[in-house]
Design a protein that fits this description.
Blueprint: E1 2-9, H1 15-32, E2 37-43, E3 49-56, H2 59-67, H3 69-80, E4 85-92
Antiparallel strand pairs: 1-3, 1-4, 2-3
């Protein structure tokens, strides 16, 4: 299992576009219905800082996510948007949980 947390801050005017791009990723993932990919994104109270939390069954599942057309569009546009705070990526290790994971 691979768990990834990413946090970054967009410019205020870009935040709504980023939300739309994230929604497109989620819609494509729902259509794909891959059992080994759990993807979520949250907007922090400042209205421009985003936190993504991905739970992936394997590195292969991570690659599938990254190869989605919607994910590529999201990543390309985010990179070109002029972020206030660059993404901080963390790989997390599960210690304990009430849920069963991969």
């Amino acid at each position: 299992m691979k768990v990834v947390r990413v946090q970054y801050t967009t410019r205020p005017e870009y935040a709504p576009i980023n939300e739309q791009n994230i929604a497109a990723v989620v819609a494509e993932l729902k259509t794909l219905n891959h059992p080994g990919i759990k993807y979520g994104a949250w907007l922090l109270p400042d209205g421009k800082t985003f936190m993504h939390f991905d739970q992936l069954e394997s590195e292969e599942a991570h690659q599938i996510l990254q190869e989605l057309a919607s994910f590529k569009k999201f990543a390309d546009e985010l990179s070109a948007s002029g972020l206030e705070v660059e993404p901080k990526l963390e790989i997390l290790n599960l210690v304990a949980s009430t849920e069963a994971y991969y």
